[in-house]
Amino acid sequence: MVIGLVAILLLVIIFAINTFRFTSKQLARVEPIEKIQLDDRCTQRFISAVQIPTLSYHDHIDTLAFQQLDTLFQKNYPLLYARMHFRAVNQFSHIYKWKGKDPSLKPVLLIGHTDVVPIENKEAWEEAPFSGKVKDGYIWGRGTLDDKINVVGLFEAATMLMQEEFVPMRDIYFAFGHDEEVGGHAGAKSIAKYFEKEGIQFEYVLDEGLVILKEALDGLEPPLAMIGIAEKGFTNLKLSINLEAGGHSAMPPAKTAIGMLSNAIANLSNQPFPARIDGATRGLLEYAGPEMTWLNRALFANLWATQSLIKNSLGKDAAAAALIRTTTAPTIFNSGIKDNILPSQAVATVNFRILPGETVQSVKERVENIIDNESIEITVDEGISSDPSPVSSTTSFGFMVLQKTLQETYPETVIAPGLVTAATDSRNYAPVSNDVYRFTPVCINRDDIKRIHGSNERISVDNYHDAIRFYKRLIENSAR
Ligand SMILES: [Zn+2]
Fold first, then answer.
1. 302 Cβ contact list (under 8 Å, min separation 6)
2. C-alpha of residue 181 to centroid of ligand 1, in Å
3. 9 in a domain, yes or no?
């Protein structure tokens, strides 16, 4: 009895000490900067870019739309085109170089993409997707969040700095791909290859990615600005079964193609990949935790004891579950042609989003072990597969500059590293920088996130203006 009480007391003390020592990771002594005034003309320039339907397709490209966008940019940002060295890659992807004063400093690369995804259901839009209409303080249109905000935001910021006769200390590069939404082969992949060939290494790279999310976590009052320090990998495994004969459905054998393949899929769904709280997601809890209400703070400060509890709670929500494990999603299942014929073939595709620490190969091996059936052939779709990105540092110059700039321009937010569960162009840039970050400067809620690639994509005018302020400050802070 007494021993039990002592043990409980000891546990409470350890919890309390850890919670007490779980102090803020926000930068000390960073003051918010004054908001620069922006006029209606900069909003109009953004709208004119949104109105051009630079859609991405797998089999062709609308050269006219991309040509129009180029012409528009040259008209809207003449100073930038005059002062930055311009290079086209595969015609519609572009590199801009702003020469710095000190060639001994490593350059910085800020990237984005100019293409947008097609409109699935026009009727579902409240305002036409390429209208750029301003209503209730929002600019409506495909590409407002993904990803013209980043491209135009950078153009506006650089132009303002040039008007102030600002010259960066280090070289600042912009690179915008035109086919991110269909894999980035002609854009980001080719751009990254060019930098590699030229032997250019960047201090850090920033791409689109995570956002400033309102009501991000239970127990966290301020919006959470998440800087993606890693990105999950991606693969499709094709499971195929090819029996010598299917047979007649009146005399079915014990094992059928459909039965065996269904079994394999069921086994995969019943044995999810192990959950892990490490890397970027652990970083998220370590940065957000100290800013939360005391109960959550105590939970996150004592992961040694609370980890399984937290894993369980995260596992209940699909978006949160994707942060802690490699996900398994059966996406295609094909077999059979007639109701009274047993098919000899069945084919399924299972999509995996791979947590850093695992690889396409290790996923394949685990799947082979679980299915454990020699009749089922498992093949990797090599063309679209990618291993997870390396995990970038949270103590690098790049992360520090991003954190400082965020605290200066969005002082009401909490800043944390995070994991990107979707695929972005940034995965191509690992060879040219150790520190690749993924962040889009918009403050939105979960409902807004559904608009990206969905219907009614829009951005508030305030968000657009804040993005310009963020990029301007980021370039100033980076350029030193
Ligand atoms: Zn995008």
1. 14, 15, 18, 19
2. 7
3. no
